[in-house]
Fold this sequence. Notes:
Blueprint: E1 9-13, H1 20-30, E2 34-39, H2 47-52, E3 58-62, H3 67-72, E4 75-78, H4 87-94, E5 99-100, H5 102-109, E6 113-118, H6 123-136, E7 141-145, H7 151-154, E8 163-167, H8 170-178, E9 185-188, H9 202-214, E10 221-225, H10 229-232, E11 242-247, E12 251-253, E13 256-258, E14 264-266, E15 270-275, E16 278-283, E17 286-292, H11 301-317, H12 325-329, E18 339-344, E19 347-351, H13 358-367, E20 372-376, H14 386-395, E21 398-402, H15 407-416, E22 423-427, H16 430-440, E23 446-449, H17 462-475, H18 479-485
Helix pairs in contact: 5-8, 6-11, 8-9, 13-14, 14-15
Amino acid sequence: MMLDLRNRKVLVMGLGVHGGGLGVTQFLLRQGAQVTVTDLRPAEQLASPLRALAGQPVRYVLGEHRREDFRQAELIVRNPAVPLDSPYLEEARRQGIPIEMEMTLFFARCPGQILGVTGTKGKSTSTSLLGHMLRHAGVDTVVAGNIRISALEALPRIGPDTAVVLELSSWQLEGLAERRMAPMLAVVTNLYPDHLNRYPSWEAYVAAKRYIYRFQGPPDGLVLNANDAAVREFARDAPARRVAWFGVGLQREGDALRSRDGMVLPLGAGAALLDGERLLWVEAEGEEELCVREQVRLPGQHNLDNVLAAAAAACLYGLRPAQLSGSVAGFRGLPDRLEVVRELDGVTYINDTTSTSPAATIAALQSLSGPLILLAGGADKDLPYRDMAWAIAERVRDIVLLEGSATDKLYHELVLAGVGGRVLGRFDELAAALRRARQAAGRGDTVLLSPGCASFGMFRHEFERGQRFREEVALLEGTAAAEEKE
Length: 486
């Protein structure tokens, strides 16, 4: 049953800086609720959403949470970053006060068809590309969610025939699971260790990702990475009867598939795979070409997987492969993900700030060729850095470290990998780190920001880190300009 929010005392726990809390607050105000916003951050750290809410009838409690606000609320809407076991939420539960999230409010009210995408890496690109494919085929489409677009803000333009493509984080999925909600079509890109500062174990993190399909029904659809052993297991207890696969290196063997690591899987509802230079959609009845490899404009094998994931979801949704070819060629990627910012004096500067885990940085290093100067380091998420250090040893000529709670761990692993001597310095200011990288760079080199760590400490979030990188790169002067000044 959908809650009537008129005149209800609603407490928004966590305004945040990514737009979700702002979207929730604006939605609640439109519904006629009496809104209080509480956030542990002070007002100066929330300047952007506070400006957007200026003049609205919102009561603020900033820089702290107060138990009386939780006891007096009739409804609490928590930010996804707030842990489930927060003592303030525990108190609210004891008082019988309902707790919602943006996504539970949205799912309860959305008249459209929801397609959800989750995973550790590639979910933003896969989400955006799936939306791009659907729009290209003439489907009324909305893209929102953890991709920094408020789903609730999009509600007024969603109808029964609208495809709503949502990027869903593990934290958002936890909230949906509390209400036994799931998208009608779910996609899981891959699973790597991440957020282990939030989850007690790898198994707990994987369990949270399972929620994307646990409360589906038999008519629903599920798209899984056939080359990821943890993701493959999801097919075992999936309620959805329509399970499709994707993956580079998949091979069809009759009515079965063989994964890259030799696992034999039923073909199921179909599979998106790479056959030589062709990307194919394979079904029991036959196969059709999605596109050819040269039409994929995104660098790296991991992006081929993202294209296959989106294509498999689009085909399971009901599109035919012939409808997708042009859309793949027209998709150029997202900002902050292997984004070429500038070429200056023969040096290419690339912003990959959303690589906040070692696995993401490894994928970035494997995607690029030529001499690399890497800017890495930052805040810790309790992740191991051994594999990242060895990938750096193999691919990176010079290393510039950004200070943070994970940087000591990363440096220790670099020393063990025998490349501690390649570290040009450690910096607590991005401009200084970039200047050092520029000094080391020569024609044909690439300066890559791909930290492998979270951004907290030096920056509010990874997107601020990327924006600062773009700004600092733009300020760099070419050799001719510098000589002219002299």
